[in-house]
Design goal:
Calcineurin-like_PHP_lpxH, Purple Acid Phosphatase, chain A, domain 2, five-stranded mixed sheet, Diadenosine tetraphosphatase and related serine /threonine protein phosphatase, Metallo-depent_PP-like, phosphatase activity
């Protein structure tokens, strides 16, 4: 079965719809897993959360869902993110907020772990954005495979082959691998192309998919919502 792993949608409906358009054409059985941060930053948090809920019940808690619920984090959040979080708190209804309280930090199945942040101590919201940071988590990891998001930067990091340059790989069950699936709604690796992963759980093949989408439409929505202009501009630059 193809496992479509998405993360960090951040209220970007145009990007999410592009993912669904692409995956809708895939042949064979498929299912979705979401690693969290469906809300935050973007102009359509409620719409995106409801779509993800309709796709899967396997949804991890992201730091932005956590921040919507818990104002204790406000002093730790950057100015732009905090303004967006406060706006998001105002537009999400009680039903969605209640649903986010039930989201787990991690989802475990067989020898695979799904987590928004690092596999070790996920509640600390640490980033995996390069090989060095991946290595410290790989040492502590007890699973053969872990999918993460959070950094918005895709990458495949195996213990025996720490940095993979390819966006495709056949993984080994005898090794330990962390796959950062990147961000659907706000990529930060210098490219505006959205990012997610498709995993074949039979052959253990993984591919990180990058797609163009109408980010200019999302930018206009951000401006119309009077969210920080930086949140719109960064979509075009992938930062």
């Amino acid at each position: 079965m193809k496992v479509i792993v998405i993360s960090d949608i951040h209220g970007n409906l145009e990007a999410l719809n592009k993912v669904l358009e692409y995956t809708g054409k895939l042949e064979g059985d498929k299912r979705f897993v979401c690693l969290g941060d469906t809300v935050g930053y973007g102009p359509n948090p409620a719409e995106c959360f409801k779509i993800v809920e309709s796709l899967t019940d396997q949804i991890c808690l992201g730091n932005h869902e956590d921040s919507v619920l818990n104002t204790n984090y406000d002093y730790q959040i950057t100015e732009y993110a905090l303004e967006a979080i406060r706006w998001t708190r105002g537009v999400l209804d009680k039903e969605i907020k209640k649903a986010t309280t039930k989201l787990p930090f991690q989802i475990e199945e067989n020898d695979i772990l799904y987590s928004h942040a690092t596999p070790d101590q996920p509640m600390l919201w640490r980033y995996i954005s390069n090989a060095r940071k991946a290595y410290s988590s790989l040492i502590e990891m007890n699973h053969a495979l872990c999918f993460v998001g959070h950094s918005h930067r895709p990458g495949i990091y195996s213990y025996r082959q720490l940095q993979r340059n390819s966006k495709k790989a056949t993984l080994s069950k005898d090794d330990k691998t962390i796959v950062n699936v990147g961000s659907v709604g706000q990529p930060r690796d210098g490219s505006p192309l959205l990012s997610f992963a498709i995993f074949d759980d039979k052959d253990w093949n993984i591919e990180i998919i990058r797609l163009e989408y109408d980010y200019q439409k999302t930018m206009e929505k951000i401006k119309k919502a009077n969210l920080p202009l930086f949140l719109a501009e960064r979509l075009a630059r992938g930062v």
